[in-house]
Amino acid sequence: MSVRVRFAPSPTGNLHVGSLRDALFKFLHARHEGGVNLLRIEDTDRTRYSAESEAEFIETLKWVGITFDEGPHIGGPNAPYRQSERKAAGIYEGHIQTLLAAGHAYKAFETPEELTLMREYQQINRLPTGYFGGDWRDATAAQVAEAERAGKAFVIRQRIPRDTTIAIEDAIRGRIEWDSNTVDDPVLIKGDGMPTYHFAAMVDDHLMGITHIGRGEEWISSAPKHAVLFDQFGWQRPVFIHYPVILGTDRKKLSKRHGATRVLDYRAQGFLPAAILNFVALIGWSPGEDREVMKREDLIAAFDIDGLQPSSGIFDIEKLRWMNGVYIRETPLDDLVKILTEYVCDPVALQYLADPGEEKAAARVDVLPQLAMLRKGLAEQPEYAKAAIGLEQERVHTLTDFGEATAFFFVEEPEMDEKAVSKWFPQPQVPELFDHLIERFSSVQTSSSEWCEMLVRDYAEKKGFEKLGPVVHPIRVALTGKTVGPGLFELMSVLGPERMVGRLTRARAMVR
Ligand code: GLU
Question: Does domain 4-87+246-314 have CATH number 2.60.40.10?
């Protein structure tokens, strides 16, 4: 049977890393097996559902390149794909009647106050909390009819079998067993007639031909109810796969402290979708052989549910930064220029960077003016900007980093690092060195990196320097204001003679 999987979010807020990871595993599984990946919106809790959130889910999934074969945004043979619409179409009604008629479900008429009392009683007496039968599991038909006649509100609960063992075969964890007396009778239909997740999701999984239910580990305790529901309907159970929980590097629950955020915020922070996809795939899944850098196609080719780990997945933002740098370096320069041009003009990213909210670290440099310079550079001196980007491509981790990295290219007078200036400019060789370079650069139109290198090496040799340091460091500081940066000779070539003369002349004035 061909693999059919579904991502079935309840869109109530932003799409975070955990949900993205779940969606990605299913996508990779479906694509690896040549199966079907389906999107279903679980919106039966109408008080929490948000259409904006659904739109964000769809946008985020599209951005990272997770595609679907069926879903509310593209249609398909199992439409509708929103559970509220399925409810309105009457899809669940017949199924609940089937369960009621077979005695696998029953109406329970407790009031909210009665349920609260029940829970308090269980807590005080250290009993398992939940509804294990109350007054209604074994009520007679006459009692139920009377309550209904009296117009009492009710929910419909699943009748979990008692005094037996419920077992599932989890694809990652193997056999998991429960004493059925510890599994409470969940609500299937709420007082307002809306189905719960326990009911709607399982009915839909069956109707949509889902072969594997992949979901977070937090759903394990619901699995016996779901497995039993399939049995009660006489349907074949899908394979359950419970993905490992995601923790931060300190092994605590993942939170903003770990740099985990809304996925679209990573876009604003200058991360590339391919890096996000690669990074997220490796949280709780391993392709083996220590492979790490894997593009979408590599991930699809390698993905196998056997590679899913039962132990928790670790979210390490530093690893994401590193990986993003790898992807930036692997991007052909022309493509990178296009990506950066879009990025520095993206109002959403700029708005986020202007006010990133709680995460804004005190020490963070304000990148907006630098990104504005890059934007101007790209528009007014595209070839020069491209060359500058090409040089810094080796050194940055995010698109945002290009702001700071390329700033010195676009300013008339680079900001001088005081420490660097006081270390290198007072040295005795410096005035003559600068004079020499100013003279040479004033007489040429272009300066290839080879020529610059020859010039510097010849000068160092002629002046008897054994090492290049005392010559190249002052030059770098004069040209960029900094002691670190891309290769000096490439940098000189990109700046060109005219800019170098300007910068060296200003530096020369500082050493007089
Ligand atoms: N709507 C559920 C959630 O968002 C889906 C869980 C599942 O995949 O079965 O958590």
Answer: no
Domain segments of the chain as ranges: 4-87+246-314, 90-243, 333-410, 418-510
pTM strictly above 0.90? yes
Assign a CATH topology to domain 90-243.
Rossmann fold (3.40.50)
Kindly state if the Cβ of 18 falls inside 6 Å of ligand 1.
Answer: no
Q: Where are the beta strands (DSSP E) in 180-286?
A: 187-189, 212-216, 239-243, 246-248
Task: Say yes or no: CB of residue 294 within 6 Å of ligand 1.
Answer: no
pLDDT in tens, 446-482: 999 999 999 999 999 999 999 999 999 999 999 999 9
CA distance 100 to 193: 14
Atom of ligand 1 nearest to the CA of 201: 9
Q: Is 83 in the pocket of ligand 1 (CB under 6 A)?
A: no
- Closest to 68 (Cα-Cα) out of 306, 280, 293, 57: 57
Closest CA to 360 of 265, 234, 267, 466: 265
Question: What is the CA(8)–ligand 1 centre distance, in A?
Answer: 5
Query: Given this chain, do its domains 4-87+246-314 and 90-243 carry the same CATH topology?
Result: yes
Which residue CA neighbors atom 8 of ligand 1 most closely? 215
Whether the per-residue pLDDT at 362 is higher than 80: the answer is no
CATH number listed for the domain at residues 418-510 = 1.10.10.350
Contact assessment for residue 136 and residue 110, using Cβ atoms and an 8 Å cutoff: yes
Nearest ligand 1 atom, CA 197: 1
